[in-house]
């Protein structure tokens, strides 16, 4: 018996509405292209229009096209048909006794990241932004590495963290005097070099002189040592480099930062020496987490001096921030001071990072969506869809 299908009766699938593009995540040249492609702005006027819109979004901080008073009403309506400039939702906001602020931001259902503002760091204050939800790298002392769900953030989602901090700190317009937010550090959740494309776009947007205007020299990208991406980072972003070193020999670093098995110390040090633009005025920061009885002996301080010899560098000693379930402990204060003294004597500036925002679990390496447990099953369902949609080529590397 044969069956004939009458295809003429099949109802055509209804086209899903095209998602709105968030203009906050486009560099100015990308915005020119997007405006032209959408047909909202004619080619000859796109550059001028893009700068005008860019200024509204990143200089004035507006979140609604209706506020663009010098753009014709009809154009504003057409912009809103194709684009958005809305912020993601702030799910939770905490302020520490010492002025540290932490925001839990929901980028999409089940996709939450944390962003922390730390006063008195850099010229005035630094914002610690996340580049991924979670992290694939599993450094043994890091809380973020224990989070199951991982996806790259888009440039719009990275820029949104800065915009939300500026909303809360009252930092609009961006040329306001006495700004509290002077520096950006990519030291929140995730490995920025596994999401370099979006991180580089975000840096271009944040540093653009028509917008937020935070100079590239005040933007630091911290990496656990993705050696093949170091050169591209320097060339694309001209950002300051920070390396999460934490150990001076491969055996120990393999345990602390498992990525070391892939890119061991000799390769890492060679990559750092070749970082574009490295000089005494643009030194690399070596981050070194102080773990009691693990990496904090005077011998290790001397080994560190030897390892970084000849590199324009400073060393940032980070007291370990404990989190529930970790076996590590923070080094005793005397051990940290003795370690710092050896570095100082060898001519390296080695500030000890003061613990900040401890009362709100806001320190580096402690960032992890606390809502994770409750939503674990929902997140599992979402993770595949989210990863399929957002992961780019860099993530292939992360998953390898
Ligand atoms: N993934 C990147 C950037 C985010 S982590 C990186 O690893 O460099 C930012 C810094 O916090 C890194 O130096 C990291 O090693 C450190 N860190 C992670 N967990 C920590 C903890 N529990 N206590 C102190 N520092 C920690
Ligand atoms: Fe990832 Fe950095 Fe944490 Fe390592 S220290 S797990 S690279 S966020």
Describe the overall structure.
The chain is an alpha/beta fold. It folds into 2 domains: 21-84, DNA polymerase, domain 1, CATH 1.10.150; 90-398, Alpha-Beta Barrel (TIM Barrel), CATH 3.20.20.70. The protein has 12 helices and 13 strands. It has helices spanning 28-38, 46-60, 73-82, 155-169, 196-207, 230-237, 250-256, 265-273, 298-307, 333-345, 376-390, 393-399; strands spanning 21-22, 83-84, 89-95, 101-108, 111-119, 125-128, 132-133, 151-152, 183-186, 219-223, 240-244, 284-290, 313-319. The strands form 3 sheets. Strands 3-4-5-6-9-10-11-12-13 form a 9-stranded mixed sheet, with helices on one face. Strand 4 (101-108) and strand 5 (111-119) form a beta hairpin. It starts with 20 loop residues before the first strand and ends with a helix. The model is unreliable at 1-10 and 369-400 (pLDDT under 50). S-adenosyl-L-homocysteine (SAH) is lined by residues 135, 139, 141-143, 187, 191, 222-224, 244, 287, 289, 318, 320-321, 364-366. S-adenosyl-L-homocysteine binds next to strand 10 and strand 12.
Spell out the blueprint of helices and strands.
Layout: E1 21-22, H1 28-38, H2 46-60, H3 73-82, E2 83-84, E3 89-95, E4 101-108, E5 111-119, E6 125-128, E7 132-133, E8 151-152, H4 155-169, E9 183-186, H5 196-207, E10 219-223, H6 230-237, E11 240-244, H7 250-256, H8 265-273, E12 284-290, H9 298-307, E13 313-319, H10 333-345, H11 376-390, H12 393-399
The structure holds S-adenosyl-L-homocysteine and iron/sulfur cluster.
């Amino acid at each position: 018996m044969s069956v004939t299908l009458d295809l003429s009766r099949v109802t055509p699938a209804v086209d899903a509405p095209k998602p709105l593009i968030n203009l906050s995540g486009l560099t100015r040249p990308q915005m020119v292209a997007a405006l032209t492609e959408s047909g909202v702005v004619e080619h000859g006027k796109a550059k001028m229009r893009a700068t005008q819109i860019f200024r509204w979004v990143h200089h004035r901080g507006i979140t609604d096209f209706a506020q663009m008073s010098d753009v014709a009403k009809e154009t504003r309506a057409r912009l809103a048909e194709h684009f958005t400039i809305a912020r993601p939702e702030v799910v939770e906001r905490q302020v520490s006794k010492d002025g540290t602020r932490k925001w839990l931001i929901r980028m999409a259902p089940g996709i939450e990241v944390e962003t922390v503002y730390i006063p008195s760091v850099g010229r005035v204050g630094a914002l610690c932004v996340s580049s991924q939800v979670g992290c694939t790298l599993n450094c043994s002392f890091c809380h973020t590495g224990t989070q199951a769900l991982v996806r790259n953030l888009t440039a719009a989602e990275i820029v949104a963290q800065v915009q939300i901090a500026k909303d809360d700190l009252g930092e609009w317009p961006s040329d306001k005097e006495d700004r509290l937010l002077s520096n950006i550090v990519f030291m929140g959740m995730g490995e920025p070099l596994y999401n370099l494309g979006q991180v580089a776009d975000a840096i271009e947007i944040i540093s653009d002189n028509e917008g937020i205007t935070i100079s590239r020299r005040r933007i630091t990208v911290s990496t656990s040592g993705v050696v093949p991406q170091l050169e591209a980072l320097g060339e694309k972003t001209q950002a300051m480099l920070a390396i999460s070193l934490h150990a001076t020999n491969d055996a120990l670093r393999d345990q602390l930062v498992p990525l070391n098995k892939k890119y061991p110390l000799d390769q890492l040090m060679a990559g750092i020496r070749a970082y574009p633009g490295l000089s005494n005025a643009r030194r690399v920061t070596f981050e070194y987490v102080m773990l009691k009885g693990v990496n904090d002996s005077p011998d290790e301080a001397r080994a560190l001096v030897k390892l970084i010899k000849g590199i324009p560098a400073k060393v940032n000693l980070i007291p370990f921030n404990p989190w529930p379930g970790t076996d590590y402990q923070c080094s005793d204060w005397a051990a940290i001071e003795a370690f710092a003294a050896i570095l100082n004597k060898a001519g390296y500036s080695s500030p000890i990072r003061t613990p900040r925002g401890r009362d709100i679990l806001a320190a580096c390496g402690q960032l992890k969506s606390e809502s994770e447990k409750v939503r674990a099953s929902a997140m599992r369902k979402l993770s595949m869809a989210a990863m399929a949609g957002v992961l780019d080529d860099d993530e292939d590397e992360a998953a390898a």
